[in-house]
Specification:
The protein is mainly α and 178 residues long. The protein has helices at 9-20, 47-50, 97-109, 114-125, 132-141, 146-152, 162-176, and strands at 26-29, 35-37, 89-92. It has a domain at 112-176: DNA polymerase, domain 1 (Orthogonal Bundle), CATH 1.10.150. It is elongated, with a radius of gyration of 27 Å.
Length: 178
Amino acid sequence: MDEPQPVPLGVVKGLLEAELGNRENKHRCRDCGHFQPLPEESEEPDVEELETPEEAPVTNGEEQSGPEEAEAPEPPKGPPCNSCGSHNLDLIEQIQYEHRLALDHVRHLTRVTSEQAEGIMQAVGGLEHVDDFYAAKIADILPTHPNDVRAIFARERFSLGQEEINAIIAAVQEHTEA
């Protein structure tokens, strides 16, 4: 199985602000989680227009028998999801409480922009002991002291050389200076 790629908080902040920063009403797909804007009013047919009283089946309390008894499946109501095509859309009015908490949390923790975080990840990604996971951690924590770098790699059985530690600190300083 493919594991998800680590993403630094700077990128997460950009994604959440792009998706949740706009506080207009949206549809959210129950199947894939995709958000999409509400369709224009002319695109969605009114329920009253779909069935008129003359076309409605008339029953007088007796059940009808025969081949006409099998009902056709009800056509889906509402617009399809732009991502997966499902018709299981929920109306999300403005921004939900949980989403606002997540956005506030990532805004509080993030100290760099997504461009700065990606720059740090690229700069330290070429080092010997730094993989994608540690590159994302370095972009999140922004170590400025050798002990900070050692704390990030504390669970590993190897110890970083002074050159690698200095390269990590230099990359963080280079990409965070304004």
